[in-house]
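Budget justification aside, the reviewers requested a transparent look at the raw inputs and outputs of the sequence design task funded under Objective 1. We therefore reproduce one unedited record. The lines immediately below are the structure tokens for a 390-residue chain.
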């Protein structure tokens, strides 16, 4: 094999090959269940209707102001849209943009996308609350079973009646499982909504893009206690080196069109020709393009800055992406056993998780998500009907 002159910057890459693990590979997720028919509501900064979600977005909700609008097909393409695209596609994408390689764990689930960033691009606790209250008003009509929140609040609170804590408690009592990202600051406290006792709060594990657990380590997530003193996070899930679609129409997409092919090219004349063709998108002058070490280092730096995997994907990190992985597994569990309550779901996830050696329990909760074992345990759990309880 000819060795390319440029490489990606994720661990354990294979020269000239796309060797980034999918979330299904990382978690040992069931291949039998896809969350078929389960509705997940994502509360996030904004969204884009990525082709990997085609046909399964039931509703897009603009909750950026107090005048909440249900808009089935109206989206804005912006930097804020990228975050929600990332969380929703990682959980529920069908893999069509990657020939199936990066299919989400809940690729059969339906989605409700709730945008809560303000017209000024801010996201405060009041904005998250506005989205949660909309879900409280509509979950029965839309049959929402799971809510994913990859956003953090403003201030620490131990108040059980904090509006975010209260809203999550209400949803949980009604049988809706709420999953929240723990945060990425590696500090011993959590902010609402992650500090809601009833939420399944998710921290992160860095698996180094390897299935060998001896290489795994904890991600730099927040940890601490819920408002009632119970420990958080509840468990951890993959939070680094995760494949995610590049935002269509973005500057990163324009550059990736020309930079990603370099990961497979060794010939200097081919490299020069490709970069000349893409000089406009790359913001390069024709006179800058040269086959020398200094120029190649600059191009390599761009590939790493964009975290490129291929022309359509980049790797991302954070508990923002760990949480939707857990939400996706929950959708599988509900498909396997529709009568599961939020209490049962939490017990199964924490009971099947595996401890990461040499790390404090207070930082990892019950341990690392075991997706396959969780679905198997869901199948064996008693089937229940009627109103769910926490």
């Amino acid at each position: 094999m000819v060795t390319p002159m440029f490489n990606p910057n994720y661990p354990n890459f294979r020269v000239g090959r796309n060797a980034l693990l999918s979330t299904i590979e990382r978690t040992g997720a069931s291949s039998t269940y896809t969350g078929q028919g389960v509705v997940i509501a994502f509360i996030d900064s904004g969204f884009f209707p990525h082709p990997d979600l085609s046909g399964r977005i039931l509703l897009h909700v603009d909750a950026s102001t107090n005048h909440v609008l249900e808009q089935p097909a109206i989206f804005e393409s912006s930097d804020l849209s990228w975050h929600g695209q990332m969380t929703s596609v990682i959980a529920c994408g069908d893999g069509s943009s990657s020939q199936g390689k990066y299919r989400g764990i809940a690729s059969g689930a339906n989605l409700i996308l709730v945008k809560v960033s303000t017209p000024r691009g801010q996201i405060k606790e009041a904005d998250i609350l506005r989205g949660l209250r909309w879900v409280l008003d509509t979950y029965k009509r839309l049959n929402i079973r799971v809510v994913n929140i990859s956003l953090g609040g403003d201030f620490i609170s131990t108040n059980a009646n904090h509006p975010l804590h209260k809203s999550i408690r209400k949803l949980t009592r009604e049988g809706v499982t709420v999953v929240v990202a723990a945060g990425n600051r590696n500090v011993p406290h959590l902010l609402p909504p992650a500090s809601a006792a009833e939420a399944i709060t998710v921290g992160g594990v860095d698996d180094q893009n390897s299935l060998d657990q001896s290489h795994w380590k904890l991600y730099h997530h927040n940890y601490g206690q819920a408002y009632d003193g119970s420990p958080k996070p509840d468990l951890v899930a993959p939070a680094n080196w995760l494949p995610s679609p590049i935002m269509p129409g973005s500057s990163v997409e324009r550059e990736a069109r020309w930079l990603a092919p370099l990961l497979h090219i060794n010939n200097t004349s081919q490299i020069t020709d490709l970069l000349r063709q893409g000089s406009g998108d790359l913001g390069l002058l024709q006179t800058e393009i040269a086959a020398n070490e200094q120029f190649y280092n600059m191009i390599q730096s761009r590939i790493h800055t964009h975290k490129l995997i291929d022309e359509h994907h980049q790797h991302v990190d954070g508990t923002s992406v760990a949480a939707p992985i857990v939400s996706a597994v929950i959708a599988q569990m509900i498909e396997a056993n529709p009568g599961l309550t939020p209490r049962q779901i939490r017990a199964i996830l924490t009971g099947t998780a595996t401890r990461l050696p040499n790390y404090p329990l207070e930082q990892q909760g019950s341990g690392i998500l075991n997706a396959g074992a969780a679905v198997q345990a869901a199948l064996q759990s008693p089937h229940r009907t009627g109103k769910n309880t926490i």
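Residues 10 and 144 are 36 Å apart (CA to CA). The two ends are 56 Å apart (CA to CA). Computational costs for records of this kind are itemized in the attached budget.
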